[in-house]
Amino acid sequence: MTDKDIKMLIKSSSNDGFKALFNEYWSYVYTIVFSILRGIGSKNDIEECTADVLSDVMMNYDTDNEGSLKAYLGTSAKRRAIDVKRSLSSHRSVSIEEDEYLTLRSDENIEAAAESSHISALLLQRIEALGEPDSTIIIQKYFYDRSSAETARILGMNPITVRSRLKRALKKLKGALTDLDITL
User: Which domains does the chain have, with CATH numbers?
Assistant: First the structure.
């Protein structure tokens, strides 16, 4: 379904137009929101932000506008996700219990945590270097424990394609990590 078709549906029946907008662009908006909120927001935060973006667009988009609906959605998703990220970051607080505090004070744990944090940062850099959609597929699989079918639905792909891309992406990642003496 094209942008023009969706605009016409929104004009004629807002309910049908919203359904078409939702079906056509959920994965696109979800991917944008996920890329900004990953590591900060929960799955519910990401899904709620995605739904908010689609609702806002439905209520505020001028169907007489000659501009691209997809571009408008992308910009709206990016801005809303950044606002949610700021909100989530400013409301984060950490509570440390006494026994956790004593554990954190150990020099061995601090050293191990620093090394683990460094390796995690390197791993995420290498995953992001794979590009889209490979990086999203790996993150969905190993960070969010999603199946190929769930990931395919999010990305608007075939589950078989997701599995084959995952296999190739892991092979590339393994090669990139071998250079750093990190094994999977």
Answer: 3-90 (1.10.1740.10), 113-178 (1.10.10.10)
Q: What is the pTM of this model?
A: 0.48
Q: Are 14 and 61 in contact (CB under 8 A)?
A: no
pLDDT in tens, 11-46: 787 778 778 878 888 888 999 999 888 888 888 889
Q: For residue 44, give the H/E element and its range.
A: helix 43-60
Find the farthest-apart pair of alpha carbons in the chain and give their distance in angstroms, rounded. Answer: 67
How far apart CA 36 and CA 56 sit, in angstroms, is 18
**CB neighbours (10 Å) of residue 79?**
13
Cis before 133? omega within 30: yes
